[in-house]
Task: inverse folding
């Protein structure tokens, strides 16, 4: 199948679809954060919050039959009316508001393109395990259960003007406040002229994957599966276009609604803090702080690369790595901007060379945003929390523009779309 040609959309395309939405009174209680932001205890909290919480679909458990159970649950909710299908296909205007937060964008079927075409650009590496998991779930349920998050530089163009006009003048389909204090509103855009207007504005633009790299890789894998099967005995022929040539996405104009970029922290289980500090002293300047708050303040003002190590009350700031050791560790074929990223130095130098640890799912745990949660996990696992400053948006964009990818779990753009407000069934296309 190496020569298989797939249908290629004409630039950035956002297609209308039949949205699938919950028809319950307490809508906030059936939604969830994105699947990869939910810790194990968070799953239990969501399960307890409502019998129809979407977590039953996106994280169906550890049993080997979990994907089939997710499909059966999805079908049962559709049959019983817990989930309903919007009769008219549309693109959805989506707004999130809260203290210091205002983001608006469009949820629709984005036309899939490979990274080489430079239409939808990844900036982060993916791992095979999460892609295999999401592919099995997507293949079995025949659904996109949560949108990926795309950013584009729209300059407040026609698509954004349409979004703002609809949000200002029309009553929403959905209006709900979730437990995190954010309010969510949703409108359907079904008018043919308006859909033509927004796609004309998007056609020649590029989008950056802000969140959902593994799910986008899954979209492409599912697309290849279907076209491989369709083309079977005739490699090189293009299979018939189908629902697998699109994926559910939220598209936001970053010029009009600049994203927030937060840090993703690491925890190395079973690496005691004192051992981590002792080893680091051979390559880094180490400064001790009496408590986590003071350490975090020092980290925020430190020159990069810098890391704060903790497993309890005291914290240790790592700065000023030995230039010779750092130069030997960092890959020469990477750009200078990539080599300066704190996550790159972490994955290429601090983890493997200083601590002898591989940067993979088994060896390194991930904690989004919350340094205190990372420290608690370090305490419970007998390990060390490695706290980072967030990357700068300009650095991420510059690395992506050079067709490079930052190490895994380097960025957490927000606010992320809430899972469960609108789903997509591939069988409805």
Result:
């Amino acid at each position: 199948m190496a020569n298989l040609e797939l249908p290629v959309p004409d630039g950035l395309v956002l297609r209308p679809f039949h949205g699938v939405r919950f028809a319950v009174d307490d809508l906030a209680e059936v939604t969830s954060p994105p699947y990869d932001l939910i810790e194990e205890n968070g799953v239990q909290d969501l399960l307890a919050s409502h019998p129809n919480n979407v977590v039953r679909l996106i994280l169906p458990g550890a049993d080997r039959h979990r994907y089939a159970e997710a499909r059966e649950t999805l079908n049962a909710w559709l049959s019983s009316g817990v989930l309903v299908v919007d009769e008219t296909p549309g693109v959805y205007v989506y707004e999130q508001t809260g203290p210091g937060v205002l983001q608006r964008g469009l949820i629709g079927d984005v036309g899939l393109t490979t990274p080489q075409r430079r239409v939808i650009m990844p900036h982060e590496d993916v791992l095979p395990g999460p892609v295999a998991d999401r592919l099995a779930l997507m293949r079995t349920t025949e659904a996109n259960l949560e949108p990926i998050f795309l950013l584009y530089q729209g300059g407040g163009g026609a698509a954004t003007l349409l979004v703002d006009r609809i949000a200002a003048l029309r009553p929403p389909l959905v209006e709900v406040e979730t437990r995190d204090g954010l309010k969510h509103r949703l409108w359907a855009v079904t008018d043919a002229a308006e859909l033509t207007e927004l796609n004309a504005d998007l056609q020649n633009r590029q989008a950056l994957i802000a969140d959902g790299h593994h799910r986008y890789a899954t979209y492409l894998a599912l697309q290849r599966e279907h076209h491989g099967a369709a083309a079977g005995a005739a490699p090189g022929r293009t299979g018939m276009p189908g629902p697998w040539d699109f994926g559910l996405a939220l598209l936001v104009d970053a010029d009009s609604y600049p994203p927030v970029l937060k840090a993703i922290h690491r925890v190395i289980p079973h690496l005691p803090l004192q051992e981590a500090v002792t080893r680091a002293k051979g390559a880094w300047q180490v400064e001790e702080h009496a408590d986590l708050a003071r350490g975090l303040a020092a980290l925020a003002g430190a020159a990069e690369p810098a890391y704060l190590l903790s497993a309890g009350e005291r914290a240790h700031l790592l700065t000023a790595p030995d230039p010779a050791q750092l130069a030997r560790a960092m890959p020469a074929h990477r750009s200078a901007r990539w080599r300066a990223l704190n996550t790159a130095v972490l994955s290429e130098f601090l983890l493997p060379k200083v601590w002898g640890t591989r940067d993979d799912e088994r060896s390194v745990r991930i904690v989004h945003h919350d340094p205190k949660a990372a420290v608690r996990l370090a305490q419970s696992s007998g390990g060390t929390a490695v706290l980072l400053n967030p990357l700068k948006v300009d650095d991420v964009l510059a690395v992506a523009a050079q067709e490079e990818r930052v190490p895994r779990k380097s960025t957490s753009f927000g606010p992320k779309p809430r899972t469960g407000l609108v789903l997509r069934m591939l069988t409805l296309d």
Confidence is low (pLDDT under 50) at residues 230-238. The CA atoms of residues 60 and 66 lie 5 Å apart.
